[in-house]
Design brief:
Helices cover about 10% and strands about 60% of the residues. The protein has three helices and 24 strands.
Length: about 500
């Protein structure tokens, strides 16, 4: 547990450290100088929902997708906050069946965990609309377990056991009554020992990684106070004064733009696996820009995959939720170089897969870099990261994985939002055997930014040929994407 917990605390600590370092820095950028941001009001009652991943600590271990709701109350005094929060999450933990030796011979064991609930005090520090907090409290989980002994004796029982909780998180005041958050929790549940002879004990400690959204019953700020420094341009774009600028600020062309978006990307890959079945991934990709001050934004990019994965052993597909990824990119409002944008930060993946086939079973952590150039009607750039496994299920293989999505887009002048685009995703699995590491696709397609009523939408379709791919792997793929854009908050 110590290694996993340390990795997550270091990761969150680095993010928070970069945020406050940027906020305190007085860099010679061209962004306008104005007073420090008004503090968001976190006081009051709130109710929300969360999704994420959870994993057990010791072997035999497993991972699962979790989802539920939270209720809490905050009291704020200046930059400091105290509060209390309770949550309840459904889980589908099914620890892998295993056999242990006993004086009577081999004992077969299975265990499942159906729900997790916690109550904790929150202590936080507020800067503008950003809240960094820690949690200390307790929690409970419900387990069902069975033991089959060689003498034919069977034992089955259920148990709800409690323990202490520690957590850290970041929360952001998105709108006057809406906030979003990312959180890590460690729940120490201790051992559960069977009432059999001989007795069998196992640890049930659980770690959780959550993405959440809350509704505050008391307004946290005015609409004017919940706009980033560059939202004035976004408001003009929303009114249709420059549809091309809106297209260039869409996440499909610029992942570090200060623009709220909800993206749905569907990727289809035929002829996967020994039975030549089709893999399909519908990923939900919310993008939330977080204003630190007049000079800096943090771009939160989440990825929640809904996957249909061909089974490598039988002629069928496994369907469910894959591993959830969270990216945090620190980006200047004005880079100081005309038409140039960049962002640097961290990427974290939680082992949230609802089935072992759909995920790595590992906690992944690594750096991410985005570089973009936007001359005239073009957008050229890339967003790249490398993730390493830093914890998770001991029985699963380690992960060392590189991803780079490069962008080349041309917005047609006078084209009423139409554009040509190419944004393939290059991947390298460093732990795979030679000849099975690199996937390098090429291709592209077209898209358009348009409005339905007052809602701005970016839709595109692309096809890719995999010039380099693992031996025996698929040779082409198709991507369709729709983004709902919210330039004016």
């Amino acid at each position: 547990m110590k290694g996993n917990l340390l990795a997550f605390v270091i990761g969150v600590g680095l993010d928070v450290g970069v945020i406050y370092a940027a906020a305190a820095a007085d860099l010679p950028l061209k962004a306008p100088v104005y007073a420090a941001p008004v503090l968001y009001n976190w006081s009051g009652l709130y109710l929300g929902a969360n999704i994420g991943g959870a994993w057990s600590n010791d072997d035999p271990s497993s991972t699962t997708f979790i989802g539920g709701f939270q209720l809490g109350y905050n009291l704020q005094a200046g930059h400091f906050l105290v509060g209390v929060e309770g949550d309840f999450d459904w889980a589908s933990f099914d620890h892998p069946d295993f056999t242990a030796l006993s004086p009577l011979g081999p004992v077969q064991f299975s265990d499942s965990q159906k729900w997790i609930s916690t109550v904790a005090a929150r202590f936080g520090f507020v800067y503008g609309r950003l809240l960094a907090y820690g949690k200390v409290g307790g929690g409970w989980a419900h387990d069902n377990a069975t033991l089959n002994f060689p003498n034919g004796t069977n034992w089955a029982s259920s148990n709800t056991n409690g323990g202490w909780l520690f957590g850290v998180g970041l929360e952001y005041g998105l709108k006057p009554n809406w906030t979003v958050k990312v959180e890590y929790d460690y729940l120490n549940l201790g051992d559960w020992t069977s009432s059999t002879v001989p007795a069998v004990s196992w640890r049930r400690d659980t770690q959780m990684y959550k993405l959440g959204m809350n509704y505050k019953f008391e307004s946290g700020a005015s609409d004017d106070a919940t706009r980033t420094p560059d939202d004035q341009a976004g408001s003009s774009r929303a009114k249709g004064q420059d549809i091309e600028e809106l297209a260039k600020a869409s996440p499909s062309q610029n992942p570090v733009a200060s623009l709220i978006a909800a993206t749905f990307r569907d990727e289809t890959i035929p002829d996967v696996g020994p039975f030549n079945r089709t893999e399909n991934v519908l990923s939900i990709r919310p993008v939330v820009p977080i204003s630190v001050n007049a000079q800096w934004n943090i771009i939160s990019r989440s990825l929640i995959p809904l996957t249909s994965q061909p089974n490598p052993l039988i002629d069928s597909n496994t369907n469910g939720v894959g591993d959830i990824t969270e990216e945090l990119l620190l980006s200047p409002v004005d880079s100081g170089v005309k038409d140039f944008y960049w962002g640097f930060g961290s990427v974290t993946t939680a082992p949230s897969a609802s089935d072992p086939i759909l995920g790595t079973g590992k906690i992944l952590l690594g750096p991410e870099l985005a570089l973009f150039w936007r001359p005239e009607h073009w957008v050229i750039g890339a967003i790249s990261n490398n993730q390493w496994s830093v914890g998770g299920a001991p029985g699963r293989p380690p992960v060392n994985f590189f991803t780079s999505e490069y962008f080349i887009s041309y917005n047609i002048p006078g084209g009423q939002g139409w554009y040509l685009t190419s944004s393939p995703t290059v991947t390298v699995n460093w732990t795979a055997a030679p000849g099975k590491q690199l996937t390098f696709p090429v291709g592209g397609g077209f898209g358009r930014v348009f409005k339905v009523g007052d809602q701005s939408i970016d839709a595109s379709i692309q096809g890719f040929y995999h010039v380099i791919h693992p031996e025996g792997g698929p040779t082409w793929s198709l991507r369709a994407q729709v983004s709902f854009l919210f330039p004016d908050r």
